[in-house]
């Protein structure tokens, strides 16, 4: 046999093996004997029931000791636990695959969470060493974590070994995922000068959907079940740029060298750019800071796609890419690299982060973008759509980092800024050792950056996790209860229409009782497990479980069993504000209206300034202001809410969402969301309270829009005509004037003219004081109403 034919034979063999490879998709729910349970649309097999692999005997299946917990029941409420080493022997197919390990560190039986200290190996690779899951989640401020690896192995021996350093130590795992993946690292047929060797193991450190929302496993492309996180927690400083979505008529088309499994269309269809002002852009870098373990090589992958018809030409947007202060790619031009609008392209960079002088600390990886004025682009701007960072296995086949130092755990914003500054100011000597320029069109450039950290005072804590801050309540302090579907079915008498109390975009709301009839609750049952519904469902849990305020509704728990999305709240016996303003025989007295407005304003003021990070509600309206038995106003429905930028600094941008009649005109026009959009919507609520009619009333023809009608009447000097007839003679002049003036300022066209929520609150309190004064001086007829 000639060498040539031998090579050919070998080639055929490998390609045959590759095409014959059946795909693995294994979801093991550890410590469970039931065969299959569904969580987020995926089927999880109990590891005690599965027959496709063998497991070292002598391990225990244990439930978590704290049933009231912020982690979903499947797969987190049970674990495989052992004080001696145990191994899963999993026959898997040839080729690369994602291995995901899930850990929810709480007490299991007699095993205390603080004693879990163990090493995990997968075949020849060490994935985790002396891993302390409690310390890691504490550091990241999340309840549970997922570690993701990519390995190329054909028989997987996954071994968990408790540390020998601690007599009481044990190992545990809550779930294991194994998903076959195409070759997403070696570059496929791309003319890439540097690629990941076929047997290199990697660990995913970050996977961010830049400028977009979280993409959950079921929404990922290529059936790879990856999670793409929001990038905003990692942006450095106040220059967060502008997040935006693709123009409506732009569709993402995958070229041959960027297959769809590289990243889902949602990653490319949203982006972050620098903002409209060229002189500001020239004076700052759009920067992401990503803490990583020292002593490893990293693959940094940047995803790009132009998605706006304002950028279709080659020389419109040209920018430099810096990694760790070093120019990684000069004068990068997305349109030239990708070939046109809507065409994705990605760039890989290799970076080495040497062992620092302090091995114990995480160090920062910086990715910065800056306009390249010397290439004379049409605009001074930059764009990024997605960002991934993978750690490469070191030569001793380890991927294990250190347990993050607990002294630097999640702090407040000020502490964080401080940390960034400390590390940013620490002087670093950086040396470039090698740079390879891509062949072909010159669109690919891979470099090795050699970075020497002479001094690194402090590692840096991030408010969000590395990979695996999953769906729920990060750093949640409110216990959020998990209900089974059966429990809620029982609570509502089988979702009986007789206890239906409302229906909306999300689904239906029922009244129910739990805890043997001791507690009345409102049960909101989602319509379907479709993309947007899931986003809103998680958003609501994530937002509300972290917030506790007298004027915000409180979430008691949730259920996501068997394709159901159900949220359980405190029951608000008086329904919503809208119901008491129009179409009612018994409209609210003026004083109560004022008190309700004050309560709701307090809730919103808290969201904008008291919550950390600030939150923009995005759907303020009378039907989202609920009233309890004492008529206390509670702001509800956080399904559309967004974490705000630092208030006053900038804005987030996204597809316009909200309710007609309440939409901030500037938000609609510029697609830029700030807390002033909530102020506008609240102004509309105040006008409804004043006029006793809905924001939009199609029956009223020319007076259809409440805002237009009020503003016109005010201009005509006929403000009296808009007043709810029921209030005539009951609301006092000074008080009314204050109220009208405040409401009108809230609905100002330009957001800069609108007051902040705190000012609205003060003015409302003043209006109430005027009312009480005048009311008590003049007569007490209104006191006849039960306040
Ligand atoms: C889960 O199992 C059910 C029932 O066997 C099946 O209908 C469904 O398609 C499975 N889901 C997935 C994502 O495989
Ligand atoms: C793991 O970390 C937790 C929290 O920092 C700590 O209380 C515990 O002692 C650590 N356990 C071990 C075995 O080091
Ligand atoms: C996996 O473990 C089994 C049993 O200890 C051993 O026979 C086998 O060689 C191991 N396979 C690999 C690939 O390490
Ligand atoms: C996996 O490893 C085998 C054997 O080393 C190699 O032939 C194959 O190309 C690798 N697959 C990938 C996707 O790297
Ligand atoms: C797409 O829409 C933009 C405005 O949003 C418009 O300027 C452009 O001409 C449209 N392009 C096509 C191909 O329809
Ligand atoms: C970091 O130090 C370890 C030994 O302590 C060494 O094996 C490794 O090569 C070093 N890594 C780098 C990137 O310098
Ligand atoms: C942007 O980053 C590069 C590399 O770190 C630096 O040289 C440059 O001064 C920065 N520009 C601004 C305006 O901060």
UniProtKB/TrEMBL annotation:
<feature type="transmembrane region" description="Helical">
    <location>
        <begin position="432"/>
        <end position="456"/>
    </location>
</feature>
<protein>
    <submittedName>
        <fullName>Receptor-like protein kinase FERONIA</fullName>
        <ecNumber>2.7.11.1</ecNumber>
    </submittedName>
</protein>
<keyword id="KW-0732">Signal</keyword>
<dbReference type="InterPro" id="IPR011009">
    <property type="entry name" value="Kinase-like_dom_sf"/>
</dbReference>
<feature type="signal peptide">
    <location>
        <begin position="1"/>
        <end position="22"/>
    </location>
</feature>
<keyword id="KW-0547">Nucleotide-binding</keyword>
<keyword id="KW-0808">Transferase</keyword>
<keyword id="KW-0067">ATP-binding</keyword>
<dbReference type="InterPro" id="IPR001245">
    <property type="entry name" value="Ser-Thr/Tyr_kinase_cat_dom"/>
</dbReference>
<dbReference type="InterPro" id="IPR008271">
    <property type="entry name" value="Ser/Thr_kinase_AS"/>
</dbReference>
<feature type="binding site">
    <location>
        <position position="524"/>
    </location>
    <ligand>
        <name>ATP</name>
    </ligand>
</feature>
<feature type="domain" description="Protein kinase">
    <location>
        <begin position="495"/>
        <end position="766"/>
    </location>
</feature>
<keyword id="KW-0675">Receptor</keyword>
<dbReference type="InterPro" id="IPR017441">
    <property type="entry name" value="Protein_kinase_ATP_BS"/>
</dbReference>
<dbReference type="Pfam" id="PF12819">
    <property type="entry name" value="Malectin_like"/>
</dbReference>
<dbReference type="GO" id="GO:0004674">
    <property type="term" value="F:protein serine/threonine kinase activity"/>
</dbReference>
<dbReference type="GO" id="GO:0016020">
    <property type="term" value="C:membrane"/>
</dbReference>
<keyword id="KW-0418">Kinase</keyword>
<keyword id="KW-1133">Transmembrane helix</keyword>
<dbReference type="Pfam" id="PF07714">
    <property type="entry name" value="PK_Tyr_Ser-Thr"/>
</dbReference>
<dbReference type="GO" id="GO:0010038">
    <property type="term" value="P:response to metal ion"/>
</dbReference>
<keyword id="KW-0472">Membrane</keyword>
<keyword id="KW-0325">Glycoprotein</keyword>
<dbReference type="GO" id="GO:0005524">
    <property type="term" value="F:ATP binding"/>
</dbReference>
<dbReference type="InterPro" id="IPR045272">
    <property type="entry name" value="ANXUR1/2-like"/>
</dbReference>
<keyword id="KW-0812">Transmembrane</keyword>
<dbReference type="GO" id="GO:0004714">
    <property type="term" value="F:transmembrane receptor protein tyrosine kinase activity"/>
</dbReference>
<dbReference type="InterPro" id="IPR024788">
    <property type="entry name" value="Malectin-like_Carb-bd_dom"/>
</dbReference>
<keyword id="KW-0723">Serine/threonine-protein kinase</keyword>
<dbReference type="InterPro" id="IPR000719">
    <property type="entry name" value="Prot_kinase_dom"/>
</dbReference>
